[in-house]
Design a protein that fits this description.
Keywords: Antibiotic resistance, Cell membrane, Membrane, Transmembrane, Transmembrane helix, Transport. Residues 20-483 form the Major facilitator superfamily (MFS) profile domain. One of its GO terms (cellular component) is plasma membrane. It comes from Streptomyces asoensis. One of its GO terms (biological process) is response to antibiotic. It is a single chain. With 507 residues, the protein is an all-alpha fold. The chain folds into two domains: 4-207 and 264-501, Up-down Bundle (Growth Hormone, Chain: A), CATH 1.20.1250; 220-263. It has helices spanning 4-7, 17-49, 53-56, 58-81, 83-102, 107-135, 139-170, 175-194, 209-232, 237-259, 267-271, 273-303, 308-314, 316-333, 340-356, 366-393, 401-437, 445-478, 493-501. The longest helix has 37 residues, at 401-437.
Length: 507
């Protein structure tokens, strides 16, 4: 992350960096699992609070809209205000919002709490990643730290399904909200003692309000547009209008950022070939990954009849392989192998695992049909996410660390939101088409419905595999830098020149 001229005077290692990593990782786990922990509790919350079928999706969307829409703004606030302060404020706010949600007595109270969780998550998530970036300054240690962080970032969704299943089945759905308070308190206490920021490496330029408004409006309308497509269809005027508005706002954002003196997102962060390729590949891979979580959850519970807890346990091999791929394979190779040769093959392996899921039937065995796919998906995405997060934050100026971290989270969150809406819509359409074409005599309504549902899932899995293959191709073509933080502390040529022009304090 440093140029060779700066390496000699690099700051001393943070003495409590590994303890700091533990509490940063706990915060990241809380953020990521909260995107899925509510999924399994949703039917119980809907029944308890008399939430209509039309409004139930907002328990998921209220969180993803505010979180995805405000991430860039939250990252910039952290750079301006202080990453440690933003981190602690985000943790406390997230805990209070979770307490409000757990105590909800009506639909509006629960939806408001979910939206507030997204707001504070958007402040917390980029602060966590940027703190990690400035805490670990030695290449091998940073590779290990990023391996742990990236495995949590990718596996948190599956962990949320496991935790949500256990809490819903054995305690109460409200504890899917209350459990965040435990995570937040532990992380906040630990962070107050062990986490520190490098204040001299912050960007204290004035806040780019027009850019913040354009970015937030663009991301919110983009995520909302894909969510609306799931509900109203792709050809609905509302869907088309929202997606066109998103294009307009994001184009206006790029124009504003290219002309302002203190941009919310310095275009150099995304214009770099390696970082831009990493952001794009991560976002596309997440489309497939999050869609897979959603559809396999439906398959386990609705087709195979698994309980919430058994459904969570069925995801354990995937979570385990994600951690192994990230911390044991990716972290060991990331300083030795060019980024594209980790990201490309990793995502390609995950795509092959997704392709295996297209062979599922209502009678398929978990051990022969699902488990091999989970292993391939876990190992592939673990390796790719480690390299991707490393590349996406590699070579940035310390003052841009918050924004670079926010872009990683933005690509993951927007990709996940698009994947959930897109693949659910594809699956639903394929299911309807199958029922219309296979109204054959002799099939009971239940068996026909199951066959139709599984057909819908397999069509969506085929699309997921295709999107992941495209992500792998992008990684092979665009990401061409060497290992993250390689021995000489290399950056891309473009950033090396920029950093030579703008010396970084305390280096």
């Amino acid at each position: 992350m440093h140029t060779s001229s700066a390496t000699a005077t690099a700051p001393a290692p943070h003495p409590h960096r590994w303890k700091a990593l533990v509490f940063i990782a706990i915060a990241q786990l809380m953020i990521v699992l909260d995107a899925t922990v509510v999924n399994i509790a949703l039917p119980h919350a809907q029944e308890a609070l008399h939430i209509s079928d039309g409004n139930r999706q907002w328990l998921i969307t209220a969180y993803s809209l505010t979180f995805g829409g405000l991430l860039l703004f939250g990252g910039r606030i952290g750079d301006l205000w202080g990453r440690r302060r933003a981190f602690l404020t985000g943790l406390i706010g997230f805990a209070l919002a979770s307490a409000l949600g757990g105590a909800a007595v009506n639909t509006g109270m629960l939806l408001g709490a979910r939206a507030l969780q997204g707001v504070f998550g958007a402040l917390l998530a980029p602060a966590a990643l940027s703190l990690l970036t400035v805490t670990f300054t030695e290449a091998k240690e940073r590779a290990t730290a990023f391996g742990i962080f990236s495995s949590i970032a990718v596996s948190g969704g599956a962990i949320g399904l496991i935790l949500g299943g256990a809490l819903t089945q054995y305690v109460d759905w409200r504890w899917c909200m209350y459990v965040n308070i435990v995570f937040a308190v532990v992380a906040a206490v630990g962070a107050a003692v062990y986490v520190r920021d490098r204040d001299e490496e912050r960007n204290r330029d004035r806040l780019d309000i027009p850019g913040a408004l354009m970015a937030t409006a663009g991301l919110v309308t983009l995520v909302y547009g894909f969510t609306k497509a799931e509900e109203a269809g792709w050809r609905a005027a509302t869907t088309i209008g929202l997606l066109l508005a998103a294009v307009f706002f994001l184009a206006a954002f790029v124009l504003v950022e290219s002309r302002t003196k203190a941009p919310l997102l310095p275009l150099r962060v995304v214009a770099d070939r390696n970082r831009g390729g990493a952001y794009l590949a991560i976002g596309l891979a997440m489309i497939g990954m999050f869609g897979q979580f959603l559809l396999l959850t439906y398959y386990f519970q609705l087709v195979k009849g698994y309980s919430p807890v058994l459904c969570g346990i069925a995801f354990l091999p995937l979570v385990t392989c994600l951690v192994i791929g990230s911390t044991q394979i990716g972290a060991r190779l990331v300083n030795r192998v060019p980024g594209r040769l980790l990201m490309g093959p990793g995502i390609l392996l995950a795509a092959l695992g997704m392709l295996l899921l297209t062979r599922l039937t209502a009678d398929s065995s978990y051990w022969s049909h699902v488990l091999p796919s989970e292993i391939m998906l876990g190992l592939g995405m673990g390796i790719a996410s480690m390299a991707g997060i490393s590349q996406a934050t590699s070579g940035v100026r310390p003052q841009d660390a918050g924004v670079a971290g926010a872009m990683v989270n933005t690509s993951q969150q927007v990709g996940g939101s698009i994947g959930t809406a897109l693949l659910n819509t594809i699956a639903a359409g394929a299911t309807t088409g199958w029922l219309a074409a296979h109204a054959v005599a002799g099939a009971t309504p239940a068996s026909a419905a199951q066959q139709a549902a599984v057909h819908g899932y397999t069509v969506a899995y085929a699309w997921s595999a295709g999107v992941m293959a495209l992500a792998a191709l992008i990684a092979f073509v665009l990401v061409n830098a060497g290992g993250f933080g390689s021995g000489s502390g290399e950056t891309s040529a473009a950033d090396a020149g920029q950093e030579a022009d703008v010396p970084v304090a305390a280096h």
